[in-house]
Fold each of these.
Amino acid sequence: MRTSIENKPNPNKLLDWYDYNAREMPWRIGPKKRLSGVRPNPYHVWLSEIMLQQTTVASVKPYFTKFTTKWPTIFDLANAKDEEVMGAWAGLGYYARARNLLKCARLIAKEKSGKFPQAFDALLKLPGVGPYTASAIASIAYDIPETVVDGNVERVISRIFDVHTELPKAKKELSFLAKQLTPKIRSGDYAQAIMDLGATICKPKVPSCDICPWENHCDSRKAGTSKYLPRKVKKTKKQVRYGIAYFVERVDGAILTEIRQPNGLLGGMLSLPSSAWGDSFRDDPPIDGDWEIKDAIVKHTFTHFYLNLKVMHVTVELEQTPKRGQFLKPDEFDPNNLPTVMRKVWQSIKY
DNA sequence: GATCCGTGGCT
DNA sequence: TAGCCAAGGAT
């Protein structure tokens, strides 16, 4: 790992590029507004950064708007019910983020008078906030010169310095190099600029090097290796798991649901009753009845496995009590509050 | 350090 | 299509 660098690209060139090419985002204060003295809302910065973890800007936009409309301040969010927030997050994925979002909001509201800390170390202690997000909040919300290192930055830096070490082993070196480039001025603009550069110019497959503000200071451009960087270890193939989802309708239209256990996969989310998921289909109905097996099998891809869900359907009488779960009446049940895999099950019955 | 944790889009 | 990728964090 190198400990010094030469032919360092100029941060001001990137900032100049950003002044004219900054993307518009609902949570972003662009370079012109910043220059005129407008400051970002730390609540908005934090909320957007949590949502953007491993998630595309396009996916986040409607959720950010929904959250800031329902809960305009961190106090509003802190006072919300768990099931409201989990339901509003449904479909965005990585549901531990939603659980930690609420923990953090309540902590900030009660113990910090609703104010986010500014220092990296203090931010890092917040639930759901790791090194990237702590740097992002410090730099973007408060213009403190911390260095953001996300997937975009790792790609940009590995190309600028032609680093061939495989990720994740290269993380330390890439962070070190990224820090050497970070200017002491315009920290918020710079953090967003280098990520914009990665997202719109220094793209994974086909980088647009000919219009890159750092073209003349890019080692991999010179070596012709850009498209092969960063190098990564190959991921193992996903296994297939099997399970059964149970769609129970009561004659009054109520639907049997259950809240999943608070941790792990889809933890804390509203769900349709389901068997455990494993190597084979294992029947575990949540209520007695004359079950109908649906033809279509719902398929879904998770982070580390594929799921094949057999769907069973039954209609039951008013007085029947389930072995587990809770009936929700039509005005209490919103399929949009289900995680995507269970929304697919619901759609397979209703459409 | 390795594993777990969603979902949608793109090639 | 099967794999890759996206403003990562917790354990």
Note: Residues 54-56, 58-59, 91-97, 168, 205, 264-267, 300-304, 339-341 of chain A lie near DNA strand B (CB under 10 Å from a C1').
Amino acid sequence: MSKGLYPIRTIAAMTGVNPVTLRAWERRYGIIRPQRTPKGHRLYTERDIDRIRQVLVLLERGIPISQARQVLDEGEPGAQSGAAEPARAEPDDSVWSSFLARMRTSASVFDEHGLDDVLQEAHSLFPASRVRHHLIEPLYRQFAGSREPDARTAQDAFLSGWLSTVLGTRLRHRSPRTSGPRLLLASLGAAPDPVALLLLACEAVDRDYRVTLLLGDLPVQQLEAAARDSGAEAILLWSGQAAEEAVAAAPDSTEFPIFLAGPAARSPDGQTGPFIPVPGDSRDILTGVDTRYHAPGWATA
Amino acid sequence: MSKGLYPIRTIAAMTGVNPVTLRAWERRYGIIRPQRTPKGHRLYTERDIDRIRQVLVLLERGIPISQARQVLDEGEPGAQSGAAEPARAEPDDSVWSSFLARMRTSASVFDEHGLDDVLQEAHSLFPASRVRHHLIEPLYRQFAGSREPDARTAQDAFLSGWLSTVLGTRLRHRSPRTSGPRLLLASLGAAPDPVALLLLACEAVDRDYRVTLLLGDLPVQQLEAAARDSGAEAILLWSGQAAEEAVAAAPDSTEFPIFLAGPAARSPDGQTGPFIPVPGDSRDILTGVDTRYHAPGWATA
DNA sequence: TAAACTGATACAATAACTATACAACGGCCA
DNA sequence: TGGCCGTTGTATAGTTATTGTATCAGTTTA
């Protein structure tokens, strides 16, 4: 191991570094300090050779020789990636209610894989947005997001957990592709429901908005600066409150249009949805995909 | 941590920003202030590189270069608490703190892809559990989960959103493989933090528990029945409260062992963690992987 | 004695530094 | 429309630094 002691010419041959250069490195930067014979000839160990090789790596990376010595204790990079895919379409109504029933059954026994199976089946038959509108969203409305905190059942909480992982996954897979206008998305009011917000985010992402998602409590005063810093063109707020309260709670902004989603967003015919409204604005948000959620006159702030 | 690294040409090659432009940015706007050699040559650190990348993100968003600095500094109020972490003498410590710093920088400009990049890099170098312990968890503790609701910044909320999608994805990918004992996982107290619970779920899943995740508010009386119906062998509760309150709030159960996680779980040496405790029980939860969180005598209920 | 090694000095090719100038662009106003 | 101005990226000039290599005189090795 420490047996090998090599003279400079050998090191030069092994590393490809000119002997003169090796001496210069030692003299100028103290990078390698080989042992010496009594008369002063350099003797390099295996460790020195390693160190020289490391130096060569650093040089390769663009680090100047004068800095290499200080740096000789670092890590390095690496990368890769991957993705998945959904499927195609055909409409029917009883299909959805059957899916829903199966999901409800799975949820009642906390069967996560049962939920996954149904979801997968649905995704194999319909595009993601339809699955969300006809399955995920009703599921959320009927169960996970439906009750007062005190009246929540364990099944509701289980569905919330499952939905949040499903939607989180979807969001992550989808967002790299989007390239539309940026939207800042946040909740209004205390103790917001993360699932509602994730659902809303998926909705927006599917419509090619780039979403900056702010999860959890956040003082409304922060929103405008956040919108500016994130490059958003509009702010979309989810609120579980009634329209009037929500509008009152929403921040004023001269800079960004602010839209409300959630029960606060009430259409003229009284229908509410976790989703969203839109003003007859040129910057129309969530347009044209599902007209249920697109009608003039809905609540805006 | 103050290691001199790359000269300007390397930075130019890496970021695509002309050296002349880099100097102009520094001179005119003070955006990046690299270290200097004694003779005045610039030396950029990884952190500087990251900052430059963030600037590019801002430029791409149409934010003028003259304002980029303000935006960046807004999200990064001082190089504070990063160093306040417990000084665990990890050999790779600087790697992690560098990752953390980069993530903080990305978060400051709401750069989701920046966060993804760092995470991917970390995952290419370390196993997932280490990444979670050294990167995700500190990130959560320092930022996303650190503050009183009123003191939360938009960056905190943004990190929460990102973390919840990341963790949700991880959970979904991992859970099909697990086959260990079942665990019912829920939060104690009002307005629980979903990210904390997801983090805990990942922790448990990585230790081969099958997790039934109950997200959001849930009356404690429901827990025992849910455990029974889901086939759980134990109940694990996350609580943001102090140990005494949490224990008081936890349900009694004759049927299932109940464990506490979160600040409520305090080790004998006073260290707290989002993670968890364990009784000297044969059904040991979260055993043997990270002994920081495994010591007899920790809070149980 | 020839070959190899030593420190010291010198040199040339790059590369970086500062400072100033300039061109392209967009906004604004008459 | 035309002209002015602020912003911003780049170009240029004149210096200075970095760094690999060459050379030299003297010493050691084999």
Note: DSSP finds eleven helices and six strands in chain A.
